[in-house]
Amino acid sequence: MKTPIGFIGLGLMGGPMARKLLQAGYPLVVWNRTAEKMKPLVAAGATPAGSPRELAERAEVIFTMVTDAPQVREVVLGEQGVGHGAKAGTVVIDTSSIAPSAAREIAEELARRRIHMLDAPVSGGPEGAARGTLSIMVGGEEEVFRAVLPILQVLGKSVRHVGPPGTGQLVKLCNQISCALNLLAVAEAFALARWAGADLAAVREVLLSGAAASWMLEHWAPKILSHDYQPGFTIANFQKDLRNALQEAAAGKVPLPGTALVHQLYRANEAAGESQESTVAIYKVLMRLAGEPA
Amino acid sequence: MKTPIGFIGLGLMGGPMARKLLQAGYPLVVWNRTAEKMKPLVAAGATPAGSPRELAERAEVIFTMVTDAPQVREVVLGEQGVGHGAKAGTVVIDTSSIAPSAAREIAEELARRRIHMLDAPVSGGPEGAARGTLSIMVGGEEEVFRAVLPILQVLGKSVRHVGPPGTGQLVKLCNQISCALNLLAVAEAFALARWAGADLAAVREVLLSGAAASWMLEHWAPKILSHDYQPGFTIANFQKDLRNALQEAAAGKVPLPGTALVHQLYRANEAAGESQESTVAIYKVLMRLAGEPA
Fold it and tell me: Do A76 and A56 touch, CB atoms closer than 8 A?
């Protein structure tokens, strides 16, 4: 009999992740704030729960994939939260991206109730979730990590324990910083090439063959070429991560001038009502700055 | 009998490129301002010339790999330059990285003397030059490009004609913009991770497995881990490229805020006397800003 798993938060990422666990043969209990989103998973064999608390009574390992720290606190520590239903020894795996400090605080609260917590944010987008090829950065106790590793490996191609509670979130922020600047790299190269009348598809291919290559140039730059600004990953969520990165850096007095710049350029997307568009829409900001249509 | 080739400028890049052509069996005439640098190539079978003009009398295809536009002008158009010794139909291939506008002007001057010119800047560093795996972006007439393609393929793995005169240089600038911001991405991620006490080697591996991956993170970030700031590619040369990119962008009224920021951060390397260090030394600037030793 496989470990009974609970999954809270069935959105763009959580939906395909939960489905992956179900396909791997784990008994799955699900909960989502908007009940509607549970239906496809229930149709595929999952059991719906009436609350996170009720879900926790029926699972030994509980995933959360929600928007930000307040939502994690609510489903984990709230009145109808996991903390009130879970047996001692239950493992909560938060795959949301939240501030490292919040992750540490929630882990401490749960530890008092003898509930284990891992912060396990992911990278790879909905495609990676659907394929089970996410990159997962895990903070928390190493023996807890080892116990749930086979389950995490259903979801991720690269699953790595990186340190104590909060460290998974911290490394995720480093990941987002790099993604942000690699996206700006694509956008500025394309902005200059476009002005010069160069063929952007050819420029992309040449750059991919050398030292300018990046995952963003390979996988997401084509969205710019086809004017496709559907997420993927929304600017609203990216801004949350960049804000967390800058706050963490502020706490450490670490100046991050490039990250701050990208955060401000995305502010211009927000000003234009583009918060729900893909992060590649930073190119549209550069085009507007240059007085050109994107 | 293979086409006789001339090679002018036998530095960090030109040296290994010339050697590659010699190894491929091309008769090679060489010239370098500092005569000393000709010796290893002459020992390997090349013929030394007394001037670019003399070199041009003995070659049908002539490579130049020098510092910047003034040096290209001097060896190509100067009194003892290629232009005075070359027969009509000679092809000059400038692999230096110079401003697109300068490349166009030199090509026009040579065209009046019935000498063909290709701007063919490269990416891939001394390692790529030694292995013959450079990425080469070529601007100029397409039929001239086709005629010398087999020779360029001795030097490069990816050799691509991208448009009329100057376009090779323009695409190289796009390449450098992307490299610069991808390097800043590595430096800022490492700066935050280091403050948090994370293991930078582990952070690099995790980031490489996901959307934050880049050539810079894979190939050059290890230099930061081992505190190795030997070039590779010097900050002085990178600053020349970024300055050319910003000037080209200024001509087109294309705002490039990220490129401008990186250019200014490298200014801090210059202020610290680090112009001859590797471009990864931008990490040292971030460390100094954070009050830490690198």
Answer: no
**Domains delineated in chain B:** 5-163 (3.40.50.720), 170-289 (1.10.1040.10)
**A188 neighbors A286 (Cβ within 8 angstroms):** yes
**Nearest to B56, CA basis, from B108, B119, B6:** B6
CA–CA dist B32, B206 (Å, integer): 45
**A116-119/A91-94 β-pairing:** parallel
Residues 254-293 of A with CB under 8 A from B: 254-259, 261-262, 265, 286, 289-291
The complex's ipTM? 0.88
Length of chain A: 294
**What is the tens place of the pLDDT at every residue in B140-185?**
999 999 999 999 999 999 999 999 999 999 999 999 999 999 999 9
Residue B220 vs residues A173, B240, B287: alpha-carbon distances, Å = 21, 20, 17
For residue A198, the chain B residues in CB contact (below 8 A) are 162-163, 167, 170-171, 174
Query: Which residues in chain B have their CB less than 8 angstroms from residue A253's CB?
Result: 290-291
Of B173, B181, B210, the CB nearest to A135: B210
Contact between A120 and A72 under an 8 Å Cβ cutoff? The reply is no
Q: Which residues pair with B123 in a beta bridge?
A: B135
Query: What is the pTM (predicted TM-score) of this model?
Result: 0.89
> Residue B201: which residues within 8 A CB-CB, separation 6 or more?
B225
How far is the alpha carbon of A79 from chain B, nearest alpha carbon, in Å?
A: 33
Task: Round to whole Å and give the CA distance between A213 and A254.
Answer: 27
Cα distance between residue A6 and residue B130, in whole Å: 55
Quote the minimal CA–CA distance from B203 to chain A in Å.
7
